[in-house]
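Late entry, evening session. Most of the bench is empty. Finally got around to the prediction I had been postponing all week. Sequence below, unchanged from the version circulated by S.P.
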Amino acid sequence: MSKKNFTYSIVFMMLVFFAAVCAGCGGSSDGSSGGGFSLFTFNIQQDTGMPADGDTQSITYITNNTYTQTITNITQNVNTITTIINIENNVYDNTKNTSYDNIVASEDSSIPEPDHVTDTELSGMVYVAEASSGTDSADYAEAESAPTPISGARVIVSWGTAPDQQEVITTGADGKYTIKLDDKADFTTYADSSYATVTVSADAEGYKPFFAEVELEKQQPKEMNISLVRIQPASGVLWARNAQNNEAISGVSVKVLDGWNASDDAALVTEGTTDTEGKLSYSGISSGYYTVVMTKTDFTEARFNVTLNEGDDNTDCGYLSRMNLAEGEYRVVLTWGVYPTDLDSHIYGKKSSSTIHVYYANKEESLNGNTINLDRDDVTSYGPETITFKVDDTDTSYEYFIHWYSYASTYDWSRTEAKIDLYKSNEHIGTYTVPPAPDTNSGSYRYWRVFKIENGTLETLNSYTSTYSNITSSY
């Protein structure tokens, strides 16, 4: 707990000031008024009495919208500040029945910060899907600029089939929506009753409807921006590239299936084979949401979602991993959009007192005889960045994380379109996308902790942290 030193008179003035603040606008016990959590710590010095002369102690005053904790009376004698403090309905008065030591004990016992209670909420913006290609300054400026909102779009969240099992909202001029779902969505889907899966759809006149299943966490907000494409034909190019070196792959079989995350039996929209430059051109496809499947002998399948806008500037790329992994060997492939220009892949490993750190400045290391190699580092958007490694299954920890290297005033991961594909023994075993931003200080989180492998067991992390030391200190 941070402690600030005040002179005797300043302490008294500050206490009087915050007493007035608490009395006038402090949170009520039922949460009907008041702002967020506020914490004030003061050093109170007594020249006489308990404790010894000249000692200073700290008392914490808390106001928030859950508890009533206010200073109800402050007076000053010649040598003593007397206070009556209401802390979670317990009154401490160092002039009457409770000694000064008791007040100190209340501070020493670590008064807990109240739980931050929020709503189960889905919010975001519905905006026009704008296609971008290349990495020149114009494309970068477009990615940086604010998206174009869609006014009058309907957003529907459904947690059942009955009419009363859905919430509908229409966006205003800013394209934004907020839907609260406390006591509505079914949070019994999982054993701990903390999660629920809902269906989110959005539609607007002149745009193709959007559908997706979304997992919500109870009493936690989730942000989901939805891009809608115009109902007009689209054309463009699909590229097939090697995940290890970004080289074009010819002769790749490409299928475009209707819908996101489409299964193999979904409607086939178009198909073809990449040419010597690794590309397949298409035209006349209705703008919308599709799944692209790329296959070639001796490569693992690449399957990814695309949003096709009207016009001829659609460009999407699939990255195929060559089937050259040994038994038990892993390969992790990072791809992202135009923004930011540089995301970096890292692996931190530890066995007993030995540690390794593989990243752009140290592309190859060995831990207990197993080599970890960064096959490719990309600094001009999109990726791929690929790390291949084999783990030691005994008493060894590995963590894979992403560092936002490009300069940014805040780190808005939701704009990166970052995706990570994980392979083991030539089998695709997982895909990771960026998690929702944390409730607080989201702009300061520069590291995305994706997964760890500890004693041979894979565990998903999918969380953020602000410093590299927060990662290394956890092992």
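Two things to note before I forget:
Confidence is low (pLDDT under 50) at residues 1-117, 131-137.
The helical segments are 8-25, 100-108, 137-144, 469-472.
Will write this up properly tomorrow.
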